[in-house]
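Researcher: Quick one. two chains, 915 residues in total.
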Amino acid sequence: MTIILNVNGAERRIDAEPATPLLYALRNDLGLNGAKYGCGLGQCGACTVQLDGKAVFSCLLPVAALEGRRITTVEGLGTLDKPGVLQQAFETEQAAQCGYCIAGMIMRAQALLDRNPSPTETDIRAHMQPNLCRCGTHMRILRAVRRAADMMSGKLAILESGQ
Amino acid sequence: MTANTATQLSRRTFLSGSALVVAFSLSSRAFGQLAGGGEGSAGPAVVAPHLPGSLKSSPMLDSWIRIDADGKVTVFTGKVELGQGIRTALIQVAAEELDVPPTAIHLITADTVLTPDEGLTAGSHSMQDSGSAIRNAAANVRMLLVREAARTWNVEPAGIDTDGMGNLTGPEGRTLGYGPAASSLSLHVEAAADAPLRDPARYRTMGASLRRVDIPGKLTGEPAYLQDMRLPGMLHARMLRGPSFGTRFQSSDIAAISALPGVVKVVRQGNFLAVVAEREWTAITALRKFQDAPFVRTASPLPSGDVAATLKGLPSRDIGILDTRNATAPAASTVNARYSRPWLNHGSIGPSCAMAHFQDGAITVWTHSQGTFDVRRVVAELVGLPPEKVHAIHVEGSGCYGQNGADDVAADAALIAWDMPGRPIRLQWTREEEFGWEPLGPGMLTELEASLDTDKRIVTWKHEVWSNPHNNRPVGAGGVIAGGEVAKPFPVPEGKPIPMPEGDGSRNSNPLYDLPNMQVTYHFLKDMPLRVSALRSLGAHLNVFSIECMFDELARAGGVDPLELRLAHMKDERAREVMTTMAGRFGWQSRARGDGVRGCGMGFARYKNLGAYCAVAMEVEIDRETGRVRVRRAVAAVDSGQAVNPDGIRNQIEGGIIQSLSWTSREEMTFSPDRRTSFDWSAYPILRFEDMPDTIEVHVLDRPGLPFLGTAEAAQGPTAAAFANAVADATGLRLRDMPLSPERIKAALGAI
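Model:
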């Protein structure tokens, strides 16, 4: 069936089985690489995107339920030339090893900073709990989220464009 | 990515002779035991033993470096990016010794057509093998460029310098770009062993924490992984396999699966079964339908006892590692201890994936295996093509910590593609498949006995280790799952130990300490009740854990400070400095002493006794109600020789500390007789954000100009020991069996 999805501010028409999880529509129909297949079970967070501002597992959401909802992927936060605040913070902190989990980490952190621009360390750790990293980059990810919060609150400068 | 590859191919047609031909003319079987990358692999032959690193097997300069007429520099490595940052570090090495900006360098990683064969990217060998080769090849090229400029200008080479921007500079303000200089120069010459290296005092790039070149794309959704590849006409495949290795589904209705809308084909070769569909979700739906059937076990039942019972029930081949005899004072106190580790999963966040395309009688395989050249050997044998008709190309996958499903999935994809010429096949393993079918990190057991004399000197040291081979890297079709499933199955090769000094189950069983009367024995167990292979640091995880826990047990028995006991038995100055640096930064002398809740512990090792030195200390706090351990802080010091990218080293050590904490305190594969029962993250939990230490500090010692020492696995053993020693300090209880889980700690606390 034809489904219209609002992804990163644009209406995108796809032709998919209604039960198809959003993850596969994003990757295969829309060519967006940010959301990753990690488990397909909602256990690791590699597929995390924002749905109406909340962090969700795109591997579990059937596309048929998403018409009229606002979907944001990591591609919607910025680009190589114009990275968003969290992307800049992750780059500055070198908060990646293999990086496979990182787009999901950024999307979960974005959902936190959207509703709480000044989270405590405990807030950040609790909020990031659903997302797994196997390389052990956690300390850098936490630093990057703190840095992004400081950038958003004006304590640290935000770059106008990339490096 | 294909367009890019095609361009690289045409650029590189000159690389037809020398090292590559030599490597391919060798039988893979004969070299199956050689340590290529330290952990098996067929590996290339040594043809120039006097040269550094992988120049030994690929001594020609044009195997490594090419300079175009416009000055563009291409560098080739047989190693691959696994998330460890090797791409950036190798660019820095090449940039430094060529004396060009790092941005001027285009690096091509393992590709069976384009790059030298450097065996596996494993065993913390990449900087030692490829870093050393590229460093010296670049120094050779720079030397030849200087000579060329000297010839052009008719001056002495000594009067010529380079400016760091790709220009040669000479007397009277003369300059010559590398491009024009290289255009009249052949790099198809063997490297000289003594090409002058740049003076560390003048380094522009090495030693700087250059930001990683691959990170920006990964943060913005650029296609960065094999999983992101899309080729025209590509089909999606899923394997139709039982729930874990050694099982298959009974009486599945293949005809019904083939008839599902969107299914292109069910590929069947003997017991090898895969579904191929136009759309990925269709393939997943078909897989689920297939799984709706009872499964049967096709192999021997899985072991249900504990690690010690399982391993001690297997026939052993005893290998002597150390046997020294010295006259010492008599033993005053003796400690006996048995330590163990269960089977572990690699747990890459992205399950294994591969792409394969069979066209015009040749197969191209895109793989995230650690052994790109081994993938070619495996696929060639599996489908019966000559190796030159198989082109294997490394593309980055999810983080890699040893042999996961990468090699298997590459062979699977190739076999499917072989059956469906003309259509690229993208095969993605599922999460459950990765848990159920990948080779596990082997379960291990050690028994140690050590004695102190009345002067608190160690006078005897006995260490026995029981382990399956960690070296089951596939170098032929028998090493991958598909090889056992096809109509004419390939025999599974017998496991072999890796000889010391690298070792496998024996790795780091030889203490670096200065000890008398050392008897170390490796009980090598070739019969594998579970499918196992290399996991980051191999046997070093348990061997270092055992040695470093025994030091603390002896220190406690003798009433000596654990750090003092170590320093009293360590002559290696670099080891001492790593330990004292760690201790100084940690505040070891003024640390919180064990009080039932808080405690501190340390661990040290030099990886394989030939890689990086690493010391780790941590302070823990125990919740006695739940047995949960909070790591308040961890402090590490590391000596990796010349640090190419200090922040890259810190990132690896931080990651190693967290991963080893997870292995040591939580992880354990579980089994029933008929299958693996850890099949997802709920049945195989790993540490999450709320389990993280409050802080981790890593101090990198500066060793300008010294040889590179492999770093990526150096923290695994010391961290495990530091954790156990801190728990023992806090509680007074010595836990020796991993995982040191909250349940076990609570049970132990309850018993006092």
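Residues 246 and 729 of chain B are 43 Å apart (CA to CA).
Researcher: Thanks, that's what I needed.
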